[in-house]
């Protein structure tokens, strides 16, 4: 069975209680469960990983890259959190592998503080979903799985 990775960066483990006016009331477990249910309709498994540590996110991208090359992983749905705006290392990690990565932001970062307007991830992403709430994860999955 094919597989995709739902990858979440720093502070997204706090979903549900963190700034609900920006990020809504769903927990990360709710989001991950919805991703699993949607992907199952496409006969696809979902692996979920969240980390507050940049290096662990880089390692997860590298692993997905190896699995893509082996024909096991079809893509990555990635909300890099604040590393979006700071991480050249994550930019390089995505650029260094072949797996398609869809960048997701729950909030509309362009309607927020200026420091959220720049993304190091967008130039190396297969696509971006911004400001669609937690539904954005599902839209990214459809993009990766709809033939
Ligand atoms: C976020 C937006 C980022 O600016 C922020 O640092 C996050 C979440 C979003 O999903 O809207 O942690 O990626």
From TrEMBL:
Active site: residue positions: 23 (proton acceptor), 105 (proton donor)
Taxonomic source organism: Vibrio coralliirubri
Pathway annotation from the record: Metabolic intermediate biosynthesis; chorismate biosynthesis; chorismate from D-erythrose 4-phosphate and phosphoenolpyruvate: step 3/7
Protein name, per record: 3-dehydroquinate dehydratase
Source species, domain of life: Bacteria
Keywords: Amino-acid biosynthesis, Aromatic amino acid biosynthesis, Lyase
UniProt keyword annotation of Amino-acid biosynthesis present: yes
Assigned EC number: 4.2.1.10
Subunit organization: Homododecamer.
GO BP field: amino acid biosynthetic process; aromatic amino acid family biosynthetic process; chorismate biosynthetic process; quinate catabolic process
